[in-house]
Amino acid sequence: MNHLVVCGINFHSTPIAIRERLAIPASCLKHALHALSGLPHIKEAVVVSTCNRTEVYAVVSDVQAGLHEIESFFLSTQAIADHDVLRPNFKLLREDVALHLFRVASGINSMVLGEGQIMSQVKAAYQAALEVGTAKTVLGELFKLALNCGKRVRSETSMGRRAVSVSSAALELGRSLLGPLKDKNILVLGAGRMAQICIKHLLNESGNGQIVLLNRTKERIEHFLANDLPNKRRLNTDYSFDDRYRLASQADLVIVSTSAPEYLLNSKQLQQEHRSGQLFIIDISVPRNVCPSLTTVPNVKLFNADDLSDIVNRNLAERESLIGEAEAIIMEALEDFHAWQRSLLVVPTIAELRHKIEAIRVEQVEKSHSLCSATGLDDNRRQLEDISRAIVNQILHHPTVQLKATGDYEILRQQAEALRTLFNLDPLAATTVKRGNKRRLAESCQTRTKR
């Protein structure tokens, strides 16, 4: 019997200093999936790794063994001595896995409520698993339902009308520190999705402040500049990435959002450049791209992704209202998943049970026909077929209705297994009736009916 599990870490219980050590870059995601697929008890797997979480969704043949293998996988992804600190501390089973994923995809389980980027991250994780072949029947259906649920939450609730993201929360933090940003000099390191969102938000305001965008490769900046951007005169992309320390020392605010595996700003070099004035740095990268020791540099204040929580949790009443709207849709998605799960047990079990009893019926009708032919007795085959079919239908009616009416998946699984045991059904063949047997049985019935 296979089981649905999720195991990992997320921002609810794990600080960024640990999350960044278990983060799996997009470039390594397929390698991670290959590693998981090679573990003996892992039947399906999808890895979702974002700034808020690194979670492995899996179908396992044994819960304890499967969770142990996932823990071992996490330990193998990083090479530091203190493994006990970095063990995954978040585990869910069965329907709780589905409920959690639906909330993640909908944006209500993000640090920034309704964050839009999580949808594309979940989709990318699912797509990678499809390409590797680790998202099969169960996770395939689960992630399709999750993505559809996320789309509905954004299109059918007021959450979708809130243009919220980690990037917008970072800017809100910047405003709380500096006031209006339209006349401030701002440096943005990185040209990925979150950095681009920052730039777009900043350019929506007219002002005299200069916005400098730096990236190690110019191609991504050139692609971004091809967009129709308002107040484009405020944006300067002419500097080299090597100028980052000098530009940072001249800025009021620095926002860092890259996927670099190392620190891009270090305390020693920044201290050499920075002479006076207050400098605020907000690093929303995971892993972090600004060395934490920058907090020792005079007049420099450093913030990271975890510092956004105070900003995004200010209006608790509004959060509760938005979550209530989304939860109604999430519960519908969960019921859809339950119905799909039940169908996996109900339909094959009933089909296999009916197939077996029908085979017995046909065999007994054939014996009766042979006996009548041997003894010279009258043989009303059509009447015998009709009566025997009616008996079969009556026998199967109650178990069929009972299985379809059972809402609890675990009880349904027990009932299905009991039926398979009582009627000696082959569990491996329960998903489908073999075509050859079905065809031969149909041909036999047709032949005998014609006689």
How would you explain this protein's 3D organization?
The protein is of the alpha/beta class and 451 residues long. It folds into 3 domains: 3-162, Glutamyl-tRNA reductase, N-terminal domain (Beta Polymerase, domain 2, 2-Layer Sandwich), CATH 3.30.460; 166-312, NAD(P)-binding Rossmann-like Domain (Rossmann fold), CATH 3.40.50; 337-450, no CATH class. Helices cover 54% and strands 12% of the residues. It has 16 helices and 10 strands. It has helices at 16-22, 29-37, 63-76, 95-106, 117-132, 137-156, 166-178, 193-203, 218-225, 244-250, 267-273, 309-312, 316-375, 381-405, 409-422, 435-450, and strands spanning 3-10, 42-49, 53-60, 90-93, 186-189, 211-214, 235-236, 253-256, 279-283, 300-304. It has a 6-stranded parallel sheet with strand order 7-6-5-8-9-10, with helices on both faces. A 4-stranded antiparallel sheet has the order 2-3-1-4, sandwiched between helices. Strand 8 (253-256), helix 11 and strand 9 (279-283) form a beta-alpha-beta unit. Helix 2 crosses helix 5 (117-132) and helix 13 packs antiparallel against helix 14 (381-405). The longest helix is centred in the last third of the chain and has 60 residues, at 316-375.
